[in-house]
Write a structure and sequence with these properties.
276 residues, 11 helices
């Protein structure tokens, strides 16, 4: 059984419902984000411009499809742009871990009589909610490229987006917990996370990739989130992705659980909050 928290005066502190601090940190992440309109606009506009520019630039050079007509790259790239929004929001939201540490807020939370699992859950759920909302808002552009979804497809997109958001936010938390500066965090993103997105099938299909790249895509967990979105938007792509829809969702769910556990373990491997 967990031991009761003890104050510096030697008196036992009252137990706190672990869901209360998790909810408080979750709500704090939402309020903090939406009080900065520039971040909200940037998260949507940047991938939108990227989607349009890349789609227009590569659209005329895409290989012809099985029907003999050039593929619409804007259509193909739509799930990849959605994944990019989720990636950017999830990762950059977890920069708040570094900021909270430098401002002393995280230290005060860690010394409170709450379990660290509440802290991890609250921070990760906060970032997940933000990134999932931003990603789902991008769906308003789907009809512009001819994407039509029924209610079942929409629920699948919500599920996949949530899993991608949760896994990437937990990954961002695990990385940020060890980081001492925002510059180091950005370096990790540039060297690791952006290539992870580019090798997920967001920019080019798995079926047309070079054999060596295919192996990298297979071991990339984000590939299965991108594949699941592709198969939900375009069911006719069955057989052109690494796995079919539900196996892809299963791999993504397993990765989500694994990376959250890793974040929890990393947060508990030190008795005190790392200081910059």
């Amino acid at each position: 059984m967990a031991q009761a928290a003890v104050s510096s005066a030697g008196m036992a502190l009252p137990r706190v419902n672990p869901l209360l601090p998790a909810f408080t940190l979750w709500w704090r992440e939402l309020v903090r984000f939406y009080r900065q309109p520039a971040r909200v606009v940037g998260v949507i506009v940047s991938p939108l411009l990227f989607w349009v520019v890349i789609g227009a630039g590569f659209g005329s050079s895409m290989q012809t499809g099985v029907s003999g007509h050039p593929e619409n790259f804007l259509l193909f790239f739509f799930p990849g742009a959605l994944t990019m929004i989720v990636l950017f929001t999830s990762i950059f939201t977890m920069m708040s871990v570094i900021q909270d540490r430098n401002e002393g807020f995280l230290l005060s939370v860690m010394t409170a009589p709450v379990h660290r699992s509440s802290i991890v859950l609250g921070k990760v759920l906060g970032g997940t909610t933000l990134s999932a909302i931003q990603g789902l808002l991008f769906l308003i552009f789907a009809p512009l490229v001819g994407i039509r979804m029924d209610f079942e497809q929409f629920l699948l997109v919500v599920l996949i987006t949530f899993l991608v958001a949760f896994s990437l936010t937990a990954l961002g938390f695990a990385i940020a917990w060890k980081m001492e500066s925002a510059q180091g965090f950005h370096a990790i993103i540039n060297l690791f996370l952006l290539p992870m997105w580019m090798l997920s099938g967001a920019l080019f299909p798995y079926s047309n990739a070079w054999k060596g790249i295919k192996w990298l895509m297979v071991i990339n967990p984000l590939s299965y989130g991108a594949d699941a979105l592709q198969l939900t938007f375009f069911p006719e792509k069955v057989g052109k992705t690494i796995l079919s829809l539900w196996p892809s969702i299963g791999v993504l769910a397993a990765f989500t659980v694994l990376v959250f556990i890793a974040g929890f373990v990393i947060a508990n491997c030190r008795s005190t909050v790392p200081v910059a």
